[in-house]
Write a structure and sequence with these properties.
By secondary structure, the chain is α+β, with helices and mostly antiparallel strands. About 20% of the residues are buried. The longest helix is centred in the N-terminal third of the chain and has 23 residues. The C terminus is likely disordered. The chain is built from twelve helices and twelve strands.
Length: about 350
C-alpha cells in the first residue's frame, strides 16, 4: 500500500488514514507463507463460538501435547463428520437457513490442517496474549494519556525482570506484598492458610483468601479431589471416588499429646474444608460433567486434592473443565505475578504442599 504512493503527500495521507507509516519488517521475509502461518485460533474458535458439550472428545484430542498421524487423521475425520451432521440438522441445505452456517463452524474443518502446518494448538493459542492484554488493561489510569500508561507499565515490568535476572532477587521481590498474604492465626493449635500449590502442578486458592482480596481476581478455588472408601466388607479393595467442589479453607491442626488422639497424638494435620458440587460422581476428564448446586461442606485430607478445575456456565448450570488427563494447559506466570506489580492475578505466592509452611 505504502509503495504505491506517488508523492509524499499521498504517502502521508495513507499513513494518516490507516495508521501505517511503513511496511512491517516481516514483509521483507520471503520465506513466510501467509496462507498457512495464521491458523484458526483454538480458544476463540471452540471455547467462545462453538457449543462446548457437542465437541468434548474432539476438543480434548486437539489439545494433547503430542499427536500421532493417526490421531490427526481421526481429528480431521471427526470434525468433518460433526460439521456434516450440523449442516444436516440445522442448515438443512435451505437458503433461508444459511445464517446457521457461521464462520466458526467452517473453521472447524481447518483445525487438523492447521495443526499439521503450525504444530499443536498449545503452540499458537492466544491464552497468553489475552492474559497480557488484561495486564495492560489494568494499567490504564488516564483517559487523556492511555498510551503513556501502557508504555510505563511495560517499561517497569521490564526493569523488574532485568533486576531479578542480574541480582537474583526473586525472594526479595516476592516479599513486596508478602504482608498482605500472611495467614491468620486462629488459635494456639490451629492455623489457616489462604493458598497452596500442588507439587509440579496447580496453584490453588481458598474462597476465604479470595474474599479478602482488594481487587477482582481469577477464581481458582474449584478443585478435583479423590477419596477412597470401603464397601460393606472392609476386606474388599478400596473404591476410589472422584469428586469436585469449592475449597473453602485450609486448616493446619497441631494435635496435643492427649491419649484421646491415640496413634495420631502429637501429629500435625493439614485438612481442607470443601463444599462439594452436586454431580453424579462422574470423571470430568473423561466426559461432560455439570452441576447446579452445592452440597454440605466436608472435611478431607489436603493430599486428596489433585488439581484446579475450571467452570463454563451454560443454560443455568456449570460445566466442569478437568485438565488432569495429560492434555495441554496454559500456565501463566506473567512478570507482574513475579514481582508484585498490581494486576488481575494479584501476584499471589503459593505454598508447596510438601514444603514447610511460612510462619506468621
Amino acid at each position: 500500500m505504502m509503495h504505491d504512493a506517488s508523492t509524499q503527500k499521498e504517502h502521508n495521507d495513507i499513513a494518516k488514514e490507516w495508521g501505517i507509516r511503513s511496511e512491517p519488517s516481516l514483509h521483507r521475509v520471503g520465506s513466510i507463507n501467509y496462507a498457512i502461518c495464521a491458523p484458526w485460533e483454538w480458544m476463540h474458535l471452540l471455547l467462545e463460538n462453538v457449543v462446548l458439550t457437542l465437541l468434548a472428545d474432539l476438543m480434548k484430542l486437539s489439545i494433547k501435547l503430542q499427536l500421532t498421524h493417526e490421531e490427526l487423521e481421526g481429528l480431521r475425520i471427526g470434525f468433518i463428520d460433526w460439521v456434516d451432521k450440523y449442516e444436516k440438522y440445522y442448515y438443512q441445505y435451505r437458503e433461508d437457513r444459511l445464517s446457521c452456517c457461521t464462520l466458526p463452524i467452517h473453521g472447524l474443518l481447518h483445525v487438523a490442517q492447521d495443526i499439521e502446518n503450525c504444530g499443536p494448538v498449545w503452540v499458537h493459542w492466544t491464552f497468553f496474549l489475552e492474559r497480557y492484554c488484561q495486564l495492560l488493561k489494568t494499567s490504564l489510569r488516564s483517559r487523556r494519556h492511555p498510551w503513556s500508561n501502557l508504555a510505563r507499565k511495560v517499561l517497569h515490568v521490564a526493569y523488574l525482570t532485568q533486576i531479578n535476572i542480574k541480582y537474583d532477587l526473586t525472594d526479595e521481590l516476592f516479599n513486596i506484598r508478602a504482608a498482605a498474604r500472611r495467614s491468620d492465626e486462629l488459635f494456639q493449635q490451629e492455623k489457616e492458610f489462604p493458598d497452596f500449590r500442588v507439587r509440579s502442578g496447580d496453584a490453588i486458592r481458598t474462597t476465604f483468601a479470595l474474599q479478602r482480596l482488594q481487587q477482582e481476581s481469577r477464581d481458582n478455588t474449584f478443585v478435583r479431589y479423590e477419596v477412597a472408601y470401603h464397601g460393606q466388607n472392609e476386606r474388599d479393595m478400596p473404591i476410589n471416588a472422584v469428586r469436585y467442589g469449592r475449597l473453602e479453607k485450609i486448616l493446619v491442626c497441631e494435635l496435643s499429646t492427649q491419649a484421646l488422639w491415640r496413634d495420631m497424638k502429637g501429629c500435625t494435620l493439614v485438612i481442607a474444608l470443601v463444599r462439594p458440587c452436586l454431580t453424579r460422581g462422574d470423571d470430568a476428564s473423561q466426559k461432560v460433567v455439570e452441576f447446579r448446586d452445592f452440597g454440605q461442606p466436608i472435611i478431607t485430607d489436603l493430599r486428596n486434592i489433585k488439581c484446579v478445575v475450571g467452570r463454563v456456565k451454560s443454560r443455568g448450570s456449570w460445566g466442569l473443565v478437568d485438565r488432569s488427563d495429560g492434555c495441554a494447559r496454559a500456565v501463566f506466570q506473567a512478570p507482574d505475578d513475579l514481582y508484585g506489580v498490581q494486576s488481575d492475578s494479584d501476584g499471589e505466592r503459593y505454598n508447596d504442599v510438601e514444603a514447610e509452611s511460612e510462619e506468621d
